[in-house]
Specification:
binds nicotinamide-adenine-dinucleotide, four-stranded parallel beta sheet, 166 residues, alpha/beta, single chain
Length: 166
């Protein structure tokens, strides 16, 4: 099978790995669908690739018309069930076993695409909830640390005063 027979491709996950993989494939002439479950992460992934291309243009290592062609080969997709059938699927999603096994089942055609996407979205909401819980815990810890630090300052002032009175 030739490389071009593997087009278009889809990269699932637009984080550190996914955006780099998508850029390399687009630069190599592939039509790339880049997907992320979080719209902001997808926008940031695409913006990052554009920034890398601008940088290469400024350095003189990439022509403007080539950069434009690469940008045109990169298609951000909000949902994997909105992509054309892709013979090559690259998974670069967060290291969570359940997410990876869902994507693997979808790739192998073991579960219906729509059911798989719904299941994945459910897991993403759960991850977002967990992240928001952790943020809440961190905020609480910060408040406690601040209060302890205030108490320490007050105590050390009192100790100084007592020492001065001696
Ligand atoms: N960063 C590295 O150096 C590195 C090296 C080797 C392997 N890896 C592996 O590559 C994978 C990705 O790592 P990363 O560093 O890019 O992580 P990352 O956190 O930067 O990006 C992961 C992205 O996946 C998205 N995502 C999560 N679930 C999804 C889903 N169901 N559908 C679509 N998108 C989803 C997240 O929103 C996030 O933007 C991990 O499995 C990691 O272990 C990373």
């Amino acid at each position: 099978m030739t490389a071009t027979a593997l087009q278009p491709i889809i990269v699932i996950g637009a984080g550190t790995m996914g955006r780099g993989i998508a850029q390399v494939f687009a630069q190599s002439g592939y039509d790339v669908n880049l997907n992320d479950a979080i719209p902001k992460a997808l926008d940031e992934g695409v913006a990052f690739i554009h920034k890398m291309l601008e940088r290469a243009m400024q350095k003189g290592t990439l022509k403007a018309e080539d950069a434009l062609a690469i940008k045109n080969r990169l298609h951000p997709v909000r949902s994997i069930n909105k992509t054309p059938k892709c013979p090559l699927i690259i998974e670069a999603a967060t290291e969570i076993l359940e997410i990876k096994s869902d994507i693997s089942e979808i790739k192998k055609g073991q579960i219906d695409l729509k059911d798989g996407v719904n299941r994945l979205e459910g897991r993403m909401y759960k991850v977002e909830d967990d992240v928001s819980d952790i943020r809440g815990d961190v905020a609480e810890i910060k408040t406690t640390v601040n209060a302890m630090s205030d108490a320490l300052i007050t105590t050390s002032k009192e100790v100084k005063q007592l020492k001065a009175q001696k």
